[in-house]
């Protein structure tokens, strides 16, 4: 599929009216970034399942092809391998996002409107930039020093069972002691283990972002620090003093360059949110997700902090789509409540964010549909279920995940008030494997509202 599409682009010149747009794709871990990009590109190359993308429905997308990406120092998004994983004879989910990557997809588009006969074809280059949402959470670090950050983190994780090992490590650690690299490395590793456990339990506030996705920085001093209780005295050369220095180095040498070199250049943005995973994990995970999304949204209001505004200048993201992923885990009758829940989750953060004219929207999507819908009888009542292939065993199973309320206010209030569990219901989530697919010529993989997401993000350019 990809080879055929690239062949169409051989020798094609930019032509008149060529435009390049950078589409950022982000979300916290397990939100589905890799699957979204793979499915989006596949369905733009073969547009038989894209009726909601108006230019495709009107037949004005004449060709689509992959091109070499423009940034030579950024890894290419491995589209071909990810597509093979999703559509092969034994389909499986591809490895998730671990660092920034990029892919350029070009569309050859015929004009529309009254002047269509007077204007020629043009090309739209879509540079898709994939990056972990946890990196956006690091923006909050730029506004605090090591002492304030440590105090806030230690207070937040104090009641969490996942942090028991790190609390024990701190009990045996003297922040005022002379700095020793082995002790610092062990403590940083213990904190990273806590972050991994917290992420596995459904928590979203897993910062600093590079601790879980270190890449080439693994083992470097810039990632060898951890939150500490402040000692009465912190002499130069102490553990506290050196970790404070490394915290500032992390901000200067890791956080700031990302926003300068990558984030500041994005024109359109989709933020993927695993709402169902948080609901399944319980009220505390939902409240934690709300706080994390507030941190993510802070990056899209460049009026503050001042350094970010200076990097971006007058440039702002033009369109932002917030997408609740894995909509195929619910019957379609639950998609509207899922969208309302996402909107409610983001409400407080969005109300305070100044998007300065940016168009925003929220919707429930499944970039790759892994289930089919069924209705079963239970106690004389019809129950709407979804059926799919279970990830752990490979067997087929039907799931009734529970019904979301028409209004999310009560659930969000429970989460905000610190409830241990949902009062009225339990919400189940199964891990489904990708369905085995037989695609007809011209069809991309099945999805839910991927075409509408594409229309919102790039439809006006086509």
UniProtKB/TrEMBL annotation:
Pfam family name, one: DUF463
Q: Which InterPro entries match?
A: YcjX-like
Which domain of life does the UniProt lineage start with? Bacteria
Stated name of the protein: YcjX family protein
Source organism phylogeny = Bacteria, Pseudomonadati, Pseudomonadota, Alphaproteobacteria, Rhodobacterales
């Amino acid at each position: 599929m990809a080879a055929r599409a690239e062949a169409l682009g051989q020798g094609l010149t930019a032509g008149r009216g060529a435009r390049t747009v950078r589409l950022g794709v982000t979300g916290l871990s397990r939100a589905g970034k890799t699957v979204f990009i793979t499915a989006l590109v596949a369905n733009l190359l073969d547009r038989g399942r894209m009726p909601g993308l108006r230019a495709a429905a009107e037949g004005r997308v004449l060709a689509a092809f992959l091109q070499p990406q423009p940034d030579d120092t950024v890894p290419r998004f491995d589209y071909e391998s990810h597509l093979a994983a999703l559509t092969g004879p034994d389909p499986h989910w591809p490895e998730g996002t671990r660092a920034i990557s990029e892919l350029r997809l070009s569309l050859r588009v015929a004009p529309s409107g009254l002047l269509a006969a007077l204007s020629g074809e043009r090309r739209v280059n879509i540079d898709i930039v994939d990056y972990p949402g946890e990196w956006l959470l690091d923006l909050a670090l730029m506004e605090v020093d090591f002492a304030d950050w440590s105090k806030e983190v230690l207070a937040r994780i104090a009641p969490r069972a996942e942090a028991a090992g790190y609390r024990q490590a701190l009990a045996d650690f003297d922040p005022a002691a002379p700095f020793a690299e082995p002790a610092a490395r062990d403590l940083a590793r213990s904190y990273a283990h806590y972050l991994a456990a917290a992420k596995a339990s459904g928590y979203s506030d897993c910062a600093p972002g590079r601790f879980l996705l270190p890449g080439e920085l693994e083992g470097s001093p810039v990632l060898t620090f951890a939150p500490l209780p402040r000692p009465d005295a912190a002499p130069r050369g102490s553990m506290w003093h050196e970790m404070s220095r490394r915290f500032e180095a992390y901000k200067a040498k890791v956080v700031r360059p990302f926003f300068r070199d990558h984030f500041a250049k994005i024109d359109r943005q989709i933020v993927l949110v695993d709402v169902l995973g948080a609901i399944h994990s319980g009220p505390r995970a939902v409240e934690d997700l709300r706080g994390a999304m507030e941190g993510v949204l802070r990056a899209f209001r460049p009026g503050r902090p001042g350094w970010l505004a200076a990097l971006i200048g007058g440039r702002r993201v033009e369109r932002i789509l917030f997408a609740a992923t894995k909509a195929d885990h619910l019957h379609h009758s639950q998609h509207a409540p899922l969208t309302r829940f996402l909107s409610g989750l983001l409400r407080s953060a969005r109300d305070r964010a100044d998007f300065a004219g940016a168009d925003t929207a929220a919707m429930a999507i499944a970039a790759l549909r892994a289930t089919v819908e069924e209705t079963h009888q239970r106690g004389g009542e019809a129950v709407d279920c979804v059926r799919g292939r279970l990830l752990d065993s490979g067997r087929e199973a039907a799931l009734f995940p529970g019904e979301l309320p028409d209004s999310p206010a009560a659930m969000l209030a429970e989460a905000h008030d610190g409830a241990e569990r949902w009062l009225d219901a339990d919400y189940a989530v199964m891990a489904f494997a990708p369905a085995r697919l037989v695609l007809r010529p011209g069809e991309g993989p099945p999805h839910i509202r991927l075409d509408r997401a594409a229309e919102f993000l790039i439809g006006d350019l086509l």
